[in-house]
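Collaboration report, partner site 2.

Our partner group contributed sequences for two proteins of shared interest, and the home lab folded both. The records are reproduced in the order in which they were received, starting with the first partner submission.
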Amino acid sequence: MSSWNQNNSNEDVRSNKDAEKRVFAMLLYTRAFTLDQFIRCLPVETDVKVARRRWVLLQAMPPRLPADRSFDSGHDIFVTLFQSLRNADTDAMLSFINTTLSNLLLNGRISFLCRTVSRHLTLP
């Protein structure tokens, strides 16, 4: 039998779960915020295929912020936003994610990205 998990207390496990929840919230917040800003900047007449390609390119080759900013060393926008959330409240991030994605789904603003995701994504 494996002894890998035998010495962990309930407090250690709870601490790990809290850390996992926090990092996942930070990652989701970063993507939800960027998606929301991306959609706000898209001209209404943008073709669906063009919008999809732009969103994929934004994620695959994100713009880098100038290295001369005091808070950044030339990281891409996702890294910079993620790092800025270090002191953010986890519940506030989860609330923002829920509200933002719900609004995008209700307004039909992200249906162009993936209809399958929008059909199967259920938010509380």
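Second partner submission, folded after the first:
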Amino acid sequence: MDDKDTVNSEEFDKKKSGGKGKLKQRDKEKSKDGGERKRKKKKKEKKLISGGGKKNKSGKKDDPGKRDVADGKKTGDDVIKKTKPKKVKAKRLGGKKDEEGGKNKLYKNRQTEGTVRRQNEFGDVSTKASLLYSQLKPLIRYIGDRFMFFHIQSLFVAIKNCDTLSDKGRKVLSKGLQSEEGRKLLTSFSFNRNYSLLTLLHIIPSIDPENGILTLRDFQGSSSITYPDKTPTVVITYVLVRFDFDGIGCVVSRGEEYVAYKNDASVRDIVMQAEVPEGKGIVIGMLYVGVCDIWREEFNWSYNRMNVLGVVGVWGRF
């Protein structure tokens, strides 16, 4: 055959595959790169398992203690766990005690000790926030905010941060309430993030804390309240909460209810009373204003975005 008739095998493959010879070469290069990445991952895993000690003068690495790769195997102060295929994590044990002082090794490092204190500080705040949330759930469920717990938790965190006398990790809610800023945060708090109590109720209530009496003077149903979404009736409920910020305790006392009508133009004084709960802690006065319907002489409370539960007073020993 002549030189013209001879065809290179690579060119023949290109013609036969429709010019896909370059794609095959790229795929081969990608497979090589992928193999190198897998090798690097394996080296990292070996270092994690072996500990990767530093070199001595002799050139050998220090043996920090061999670790078994079995899932949940304890080796020294570490626990080996397989989280995903071909991936291993070594987790430091926090519950192991030292023979000398009897304390956990986790608390020996100052940075770790401060982290644990801050976590305990936040855990105490969230526990008390969940307690208040659970006790007030029959009222706040009609506000319809699915992030209500985090709203209460953010209030408690802000009050805790008002404790400027204590260091980080040692701040307490009760000391935060002793400051003016902490008391203002609590007395002006509204469980509805979009509306406050003053947006619906146009009268500032007067409170008798010793007898648990709240009075709305010169109340007029047609002008003293902004009715949500053009509803004809609104229910007003007085609530007293005794909350122990030092310990763990919350007692809720629901008082009298008053129904305001939009067409009522008469002026009167509304007096509502609630039993003052006994126990330790401070007393928080709250007022709920929400939409309701009356059917067969019974209240039918309903969800509305403008329903409000707000704090109207705080008294007791801080």
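Feedback sent to the partner group on the second submission included the following. The longest strand covers residues 249-261. The chain is about 30% helix and 25% strand.
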